[in-house]
Amino acid sequence: MRIGIIGGGQLGRMFIQNGLNYGIEFFVLDPDPNAPCSAIANKFVCADRNDEEAVYALGKECDVVTIEIENVSIEALKRLRDEGVTVYPQPEILEMIRDKGVQKQFYLDNGLPTADFALVESKSEIEAHKDLLPVMQKMRVGGYDGKGVTPIKDVGDIATAFDAPSVLESWVPNALEIAVLVSRNPDGDVKSFPVVELVFNPEANLVDYLVSPARVSIEIEAKAREISESLIRKMEMVGLLAVEMFVTEAGEVLINEMAPRPHNSGHHTIEACFTSQYDQHLRSIMNWPLGSTVLRCAAAMINLLGEKGYEGKAIYQGLENAIGETGVFPHIYGKEMTKPYRKMGHVTVLDNTTDDALIKAQRTQELIKVIA
To answer: Is 202:302 a contact under the CB 8 Å cutoff?
Structure first.
């Protein structure tokens, strides 16, 4: 069996590492000749992910094609699907998800809870929605890892807003941010993972750390998983879906946005769950039985980000000290060069309770620094 992956970053690398256990071959396409997948893929093609002919050519050599980033050639994936290559998630799903405006409209049309929003084509149209302020402006396409997102708290902030087609999402004050990973195979079987609690780095707007199980009530846990399972069923998507959500002060659970692939919020599942997010994605696209999503124990995960003030060949300072502690599992992504806030790896820590895992994770975060 041969699987093609469009995108060669760390998500693809961890997906390959899992799939090697099944004797699967992996063909990967990415524009970076030193992408994390390049060293371990059976075949690596250096090409633009939106190069229709390059994506199509790689896909024709594979039994199944999947993605590890949404910004890929949809046209190539449709051609492959129409010619009998299995493509999951479906190209139409990717087309819908990579436009945040279409995402939001899908939630509204299908009765799924989300914050109030307005769609604008340019900065000049924001004035017409002053009644919605404060809002978070999100570019409809092209944003990722905190890029393409900016707060507009009052009329004065409009001057620095993006001049691009955007979603103006009503501000959800004091919201707890959570995520649920949910999977579906072609037979229609659906399983979700326990809720993850996310804490963001305020400067980089990236996840600083996460904990699971989340520190939420049984009712919130059940509601979040029910919403996520309903969403993937209504989309009829095959694969793994990461659903990021807000929990309001009043106890509402609102969908923020989604990603149709393994996700930063699920890295901990490699050590913490009976089935990792990568194994579940593989099972989904292969139409195998979905695995157990039960947590073995409490877990926390910290992202290893490039330190401010350092740019160049990466050095992982303090790594040896950190791994001397029980239940600490580092994952280095194989990126040679670091820069401020670049995702260079992550560390999962396991412990008896969420609070214990979090304390250990924060201690680990102080030990490891990615410098140059």
So the answer is: no
